[in-house]
Design a protein that fits this description.
The complex is a heterotetramer, with 2 copies of chain A and 2 copies of chain B. Chain A has 7 helices and 11 strands. Chain A is of the alpha/beta class. Chain A has a single domain, classed as Glutaconate Coenzyme A-transferase. In chain A, helix 5 crosses helix 6. Chain A is globular and about 55 Å long. The mean pLDDT of chain A is 97. Chain B is 14% helix and 26% strand. In chain B, the strands form 2 sheets. Chain B has a 10-stranded mixed sheet with strand order 4-3-2-1-5-8-10-11-12-13. A 3-stranded mixed sheet of chain B has the order 7-6-9, with no helix packed on it. The two termini of chain B are 24 Å apart. The mean pLDDT of chain B is 95. The chains are: A alpha/beta, B alpha/beta. Chains in contact: A-B, A-C, A-D, B-C, C-D.
Chain lengths: 236, 222, 236, 222
């Protein structure tokens, strides 16, 4: 019987090694797999390349992972942290590298990585400094820049409901980068608010088909990052 | 809107937003940038319906919820709590930027640091050596959305012109802006350069020229 | 009020002109917008380029449109018709052109066309005759072929439920090419089994968001192509 | 399966399918080509679970429905009526080929016109001038799926070898096939060329060599 359920977040992320490339779902706090990230802080893997739209909030979740100096490179579209000096401080000290990618190009590069598309052309960044050094091609009279697909060793994902096969559905705008990141990682690790029986998810409404998912762990009452930040919680 | 009161000079943020809203056709799909552009949603003319897109995966975005009704998993691109209207849909980031990059969004209203007379937009970085670059979805929006409006104070807090011959800051996109709604005037980007379309109450053409670092064409007589 | 509802299939397709590029949803008979196609036969626009995975069945639907000599070019992956000699006969007579595209590349080209991606690389067709004359690029040690996005003037779509704004959901494997074709056409015309009130479709389960849809017409009891074929029905 | 009856010679279509099924690891995501490969689904070993993908947008495909229960909107890539098992999901063609092209499907079992000793596959066209080309999803599958098995009669109806040094028909993909299940033998594609892995009952190595148009290595002794 195929059963992708794992008992604890610690077990779920145990094989992430130093130097891994890790995609982390979420847009701001929405859809951020905070418990998996905190488990990764406890675990301590270093020299990670992290792909996320932002750099976290306060001193919890992704911001705490960065603050704990486990991340050597961020690939993101908007690294300014809200209520946090974690990333700016490390960046200005030269302790973390940054690859800035426009949000839509970041999404498409992840989608391409998952879809077996090694590279594609887009008009985004043409005539801007972010296209410097990149191949430009004129197609039908318009200039486009060549961008490459992104893949990862691991993806850390948050969803609303999962089943033991790994089918997932999400909640509102907490969907964001999660479904595409599921497709682009060698090992996709999911925290679900609820694990339901196989057959409970209507095949018409599954957002992430189970082929993309390797591990599912139930986190029934995930923290809400903004509340932790307000309370001044610091995970590290 | 009464903008003709003789005592006032210029437009408020709300009035700039309302003027932009009046120039968006009925039935448009609209994406609003962070800041003053967000106010546009408050001023949809009564006989029109717009559908709002936010790039973090929601079409049919509604206004902010009542205090206490916020949902940390229902936010907009500015990471503020919003609502979803009847007829809304949620989707992932790949699909969301299919809408933007694919040319399916009709109008985007953005803020600006500089706008050139050719319609170049700079709104993501001053290019200062210690600045941490942060671009978000702005470059995708200007590359993909059919019509780009800018709402912005005419000058910086220090009185430096934002409408310029050539942007000195790093570009967000080249030849993308079609109309600017400032506190002093509505200005079109035309093949001949900036042209005033309408002056704010109490503002003269000469005043606008003075605060603009590029040639300015007067209102066209029809 | 935004209202994309149209009363009849004839009105819905009335502005398709000679020479138009038309994407037609469906995989075999599943998801095929037969009533819209039959309206297009009644309408008579000629010299069409049609994009569909197949070439229709029997002498109804797409096969009838081809049989009526309204199509000058087919772009598809598998043009062999079941129970029909319509396409082969015209093809051998030199009366219809054929661009053969692998099914996955066809899907991705349509998706790219809708997503503002003018071109992308894929390993599909490398070292086969279908890559002849195409650009090959080696990326990270593997060869890929350059393929271009596909767009259309019109898309003819079948769905299960729609609302007046143009939100769509589909039925089982009748989904197939329909959602991606909705994104890639200037004018997307949809026949829905049922038009429901705005708000009746859960925002979490909408497959085609309304931004992609221009016109919706209710066809409550669509024909089942295979039954027509069995009955020997010929639309032309 | 009893294949050791001394009176029988070779394997039936069902036996070829069963042998292929036995070589698919537990928990695999599997895509089955049209024809004999479809039979594989009938022979999943009792202690294993496979999840079937069909490229027209269904993961978790089940067996054909009872007669009278067919749904013209629930079909497989061969356009035959199928069912959806608990845990299934429907998706569009773009997403379906993300699974295939992106390397997410573990095993694909296909038919063949020719297989070369280097693993090249030809299964879509004879290249005859009057043939109407029809490729379907075969090229995407061989380019994207991790392991490609072939099930095929060892020769054509006219006795012409299908296992060859070099394919004369247009290729579907180069160096893609790893194992062939024919009615005469199971044959691996190795860096040294074709190697017999197992002979069908009543079949000798010499017989298989005779019906193969490429050098054949004998079963490896371990």
């Amino acid at each position: 019987m195929i059963d992708k359920r794992i008992k604890t977040v610690a077990e779920a992320i145990a094989d992430i090694t130093d130097g891994s490339v890790v995609m982390i779902g979420g847009f701001g706090e929405a859809g951020s797999p905070s418990e998996l990230i905190h488990a990764l802080i406890d675990h301590g893997a270093k020299d990670l390349t992290v792909i996320n739209n932002n750099t976290g909030n306060g001193e919890v979740g992704l911001a705490a992972l960065i603050g704990n100096e486990q991340v050597s490179k961020m690939i993101c579209s908007y690294p300014r942290s809200s209520h946090s000096k974690v990333f700016p401080t490390l960046y200005r000290a030269g302790k973390i590298a940054l690859e800035i990618v426009p949000q839509g190009t970041l999404a498409e590069r992840i989608r391409a990585g998952g879809a077996g598309i090694p590279a594609f052309y887009t008009a985004t960044t043409v005539d801007t400094p972010l296209a410097d050094g990149k191949e430009i091609r004129n197609i039908d009279g318009r200039d486009y820049v060549l961008e490459y697909g992104l893949k990862a060793d691991f993806a850390l994902i948050k969803c609303e409901k999962a089943d033991r096969l790994g089918n997932l559905i999400y909640n509102k705008t907490a969907r964001n980068f999660n479904p595409i990141m599921c497709t682009a990682a060698n090992t996709t690790i999911v925290q679900a608010r609820k694990i339901v029986a196989v057959g409970d998810l209507d095949p018409e409404i599954v957002v992430t088909p189970n082929v993309y998912v390797d591990r599912v762990v139930e986190v029934a009452n995930p923290v809400i990052e903004s509340q932790l930040v307000e309370e001044g919680v610091c995970y590290i | 809107m009464n903008t003709e009161n003789s005592k006032v000079k210029g437009w408020t943020r709300e009035q700039m937003a309302e003027l932009a809203a009046m120039d968006i056709p009925d039935g448009s799909y609209v994406n609003l940038g962070i800041g003053i552009p967000e106010l546009v949603a408050k001023f949809v003319p009564e006989d029109r319906e717009f559908i709002y897109h936010t790039e973090n995966g929601l079409l049919g975005m509604g206004p902010a919820p009542e205090p206490g009704q916020e949902d940390s998993e229902l936010i907009n691109a500015g990471k503020k709590a919003v609502t979803a209207l009847p007829g809304a849909s949620f989707f992932h980031h790949g699909d969301s930027f299919t809408m933007i990059r694919g040319g399916h969004i009709d109008v985007c209203v953005l803020g600006a640091m500089q706008i050139s007379q050719e319609g170049d937009l700079a709104n993501w970085s001053t290019g200062a050596p210690d600045a941490i670059p942060a671009v978000g979805g702005a470059m995708d929006l200007v590359a993909g959305v059919k019509t780009i409006f800018v709402i912005s104070q005419h000058t910086t807090k220090n009185g430096v012109a934002k409408l310029v011959e050539k942007c000195s800051y790093p570009l967000t996109g080249k030849k993308v802006v079609t109309r600017v709604f400032s506190d002093l005037a509505i200005i079109d980007v035309t093949p001949e350069g900036f042209r005033v379309r309408r002056l704010a109450p109490g503002i003269t053409f000469e005043e606008v020229c003075e605060k603009t670092d590029a040639p300015l064409l007067p209102i066209k007589a029809y």
